[in-house]
Amino acid sequence: MVKAFIGFSCVSLAIVIGLGLFFPWVFWLLILVVPIVIMGILDMLQTKHAIIRNYPVVGRARYWMEALRPKIYQYFVESDIDGSPINRVDRSTIYQRAKRELDSQPFGTQFNVYAEGYEWMAHSIQPQNFDNLEKDPRVTFGGKDCKQPYSGSILNVSAMSYGSLSSNAVQALNGGAKIGNFAHNTGEGGISDFHLKQGGDIIWQIGTGYFGCREEDGNFSDSLFAEKSALPQIKMIELKISQGAKPGHGGILPAAKNTPEIAEIRHVKPYTTVFSPPYHKAFGSPREMMLFIQRLRELSKGKPVGFKLCIGQPREFYAICKAMVETDIYPDFITVDGGEGGTGAAPPEFSNSVGMPLMDGLSFVHDTLTGFNIRHHMKIIASGKILTGYHMLRAMALGADTCNSARAMMMALGCIQALVCNTNKCPTGVATQDKWLSAGLVVDDKKHRVANYHRDTIESAIELAGAAGLRDPHDITRRHIFRRVFMNQVKTFEEIYPSTAPGALLNGQMPEHLKKELETVGIDNWG
């Protein structure tokens, strides 16, 4: 192919120059020919791409097609029930609810109801009248040591940082939270003016970098935390232990992205590379973790304090529960994130192969807390591909009190699942810091779409609960949800995730192997 290109170049230039001597206007063709020749020469000289080196100019088509492939697949190839990480059926539902368009579907389900993994909810012969049900059920966060309990919605905005999202996206999410009376989690990037401008309720997430409440050396700052947690918009504090998309992985803020604005929000030096360690330096054991939670609650004047984690090694969560019992310190809530959770950027091995999925992690956390007889001290928040009312009820059946959603809220803003969140080139202005792109996201319009999606999704969950004969969605149990495990075999969630009896992990009513493991679990180390 190299020889063919050289021949093409020589012949093309010779013909154009030769004809140009007789017909001067032909020289204008050099505007087309010369750039192609120069491009080909550069392709032959470069050493990074063998295909381009061996196939000058035309070899570039391979990379153009590779870039176009996701777009072509999404718009022309995939069916409504395909598409990852979120299929078109769910995406369409989110868009329609955000825009208050018709969200019904014709001609029945497109899913194969006899396929392994298909799920459904059991309805009742005596359903509840939707008009008589509470349209905005609330959950009170705050245990025995909480002095400022918070009445929260059953669906809230999951953690997404400013920096990962644009300033307009953050404002629109918080504006939607203000309109719909629900909460907006800041993510670990700290509290920005964009979180505060619209006046919506805030859950302040604190990660291992302690952004917004850190000393110069990166350690936690009591004074900065106390100052910021006093803001009236901050209703709860969430200590991030790990997240489903990249559990056990620290973050890096490159120097080029660490602008003076970002540096001021995070309390770091501008234009320096900032590393978030994969673990917390403020505590080093389950006992110390409980003492730190108590410290945060005291510094915040009694606001609800909880932690977020993706379940990894079960014995570590057993150790946390043991520490709660022995110290008599309990978080006000635990956010359980699933391994299917999303992020702007993560190594593929962490996204694909690390962390317990939501349903397994959620049932494990609820059952473990129940087994230690401490479930009543705290609320559980479910996070991880919560998109529809059914997803909310399924999570509640497994033990959740409320749900958080990130990607659905992004789609309510206009996200089209372009899958370029990690490139700073988000075409809808949601996950980018490019001011030209983010300007396309109009806050005053999108905040209403976020509120619309929130309202309609909660109403769908209420209506589903009513169809099951329940007056409150929290009354749903694992016996209400069915899954096809084989083509000719169906099981309830109670059979798949058997419930634990209250106090079973304290009175010895457990399998022998679990009893032996619990005996070896301590609270002064993570081993």
Tags for this entry?
527 residues; alpha/beta
Strand order of the largest sheet: 4-13-12-11-10-7-6-5
Instruction: Summarize the main sheet.
Output: 8 strands, parallel
What is the beta-strand fraction?
5-15%
Q: How confident overall, as mean pLDDT?
A: 88
Radius of gyration over alpha carbons? Answer: 27 Å
Content-based structural category = alpha/beta
| Quaternary assembly | single chain
**Which spans of ≥5 residues are poorly predicted at pLDDT below 50?**
none
Tally of strands: 15
Number of helices: 19
Helicity, as a percent range: 25-40%
Instruction: Identify the overall geometry.
Output: globular
Report how far the terminal alpha carbons are from each other: 60 Å
Question: What do you see in this structure?
Answer:
- Strand 5, helix 7 (193-196) and strand 6 form a beta-alpha-beta unit.
- This protein has helices at residues 2-22, 30-45, 50-54, 60-77, 88-98, 167-180, 193-196, 222-229, 260-266, 286-299, 314-327, 348-353, 358-371, 389-397, 407-413, 435-438, 443-467, 493-496, 512-520; strands at residues 119-121, 138-141, 150-153, 155-157, 183-185, 201-206, 234-240, 251-253, 274-276, 305-309, 333-337, 379-383, 402-405, 481-486, 489-492.
- It has an eight-stranded parallel beta sheet with strand order 4-13-12-11-10-7-6-5. The chain has a three-stranded antiparallel beta sheet with strand order 1-14-15. Strands 2-3 form a two-stranded antiparallel sheet.
- With 527 residues, it is of the alpha/beta class.
- The longest helix is centred in the last third of the chain and has 25 residues, at 443-467.
- It is built from 19 helices and 15 strands.
- It starts with a helix and ends in a 7-residue tail after the last helix.
